[in-house]
Specification:
With about 300 residues, this protein is of the alpha+beta class. About 35% of the residues lie in helices and about 20% in strands. The longest helix has 21 residues. The model has no long low-confidence stretch (mean pLDDT about 95).
């Protein structure tokens, strides 16, 4: 898994490779969109990733229930909160404007970006996707011309086609630029909220050039053997942030209206920042191991009232 993580980082650092892979993926999944209904596609991709067919009529596990929510649950705030620019308006509405990282600019095309308008350090993100970003730590050495080609490839894509996440289907693809809020890689605290209550925390951090993903319960007890197939497990508990309880309370207030959402927050020297909200982590195709965690998370996610409605 560690060698796979390093390979992903290598590919991510090569602009030509990123464009090639993204364009091939866009064309391939565009064809599949015409061939399969949302349910057929979800069943096929779920079996391919997890190794069994999902029960979409009577879902029990977490990953099955996420697929059910994709197909059956619609809340008009979910597309808004999924968009990295529009989500800031949602966070303001919830009363947490002090958590927001300032927006320097928003563009419909990478060709509109003028480096003279930007500070020496910044981050560029696609508002309509996941993992589509560039970090600039030195504007003079940042090859914006090459990066623009990659960013325009992001703007040609619709994340809906890759996992049938309905909330992305009609989103307007844009680029948002924000200042860097720290001079080192941040620990990413991702609060998994089930029916408005934080029950687990996903913690992403880098160590020795490797990106690790670990899971904790809501009291900061590590699940030492849990993996989601996204990155290697670090397997040793990190120090509990001093503002952990405050972050958890913020996540729960933000998540109160949704059956499930992951709220991402950062802790920068005691200052909490909002990252993003994700309604279908890994598009719901996490290969969770051991399976007991998929079952446990599934028990936490109550959809009975939604079914009855």
């Amino acid at each position: 898994m560690k060698s796979v993580s390093k390979l992903k980082n290598l590919i991510k650092s090569n602009d030509f490779a990123r464009i090639f892979i993204e364009e091939r993926k866009r064309i391939k999944y565009g064809r599949l969109l015409k061939k399969y209904s949302d349910r057929e596609f979800i069943e096929m991709l779920y079996e391919r990733n997890i190794g069994r067919r999902p029960d979409l009529d009577d879902p029990k596990t977490f990953t099955e229930k996420l697929q059910w929510l994709k197909l059956n649950y619609r809340d008009p705030d979910i597309p808004l909160a999924s968009d990295k620019y529009e989500a800031k308006k949602y966070i303001e509405r919830r009363g947490f404007s002090e958590l927001l990282i300032p927006t320097l600019a928003v563009y419909d095309s990478a060709d509109e970006i003028n480096p003279d308008d930007l500070p020496d350090e910044f981050i560029i993100k696609a508002t309509h996707g996941s993992g589509w970003n560039f970090i600039c730590r030195d504007k003079k050495s940042f090859n914006l011309k090459a990066k623009k080609k990659v960013m325009n490839s992001w703007l040609r894509q619709n994340l809906y086609v890759y996992g049938r996440e309905w909330n992305y289907k009609d989103q307007k693809p844009r680029l948002i630029i924000e200042p860097l809020i720290d001079d080192k890689p941040l620990v990413d605290y991702k609060f998994l909220c089930f029916n408005g209550k934080c029950k687990a925390v996903q913690v992403n951090h880098d160590d020795g050039g490797i990106h690790y993903v670990d899971y904790y319960d809501d009291e900061w007890n590590l699940f030492p053997d849990m993996g989601s197939g996204t990155a290697p497990i670090f397997g040793r508990p990190l120090a509990k942030p001093a503002v952990f309880e405050e972050m958890k309370a913020i996540a729960e207030k933000t998540a109160a209206d949704f059956p499930f959402v992951r709220v991402d927050l950062y802790d920068v020297n005691g200052k909490i920042y909002f990252g993003e909200m994700t309604f279908f982590p890994g598009s719901g195709f996490w290969h969770i191991t051991p399976e007991k965690y998929d079952n446990m998370f599934g028990e936490w996610l109550e959809i009975k009232e939604l079914v009855d409605d």
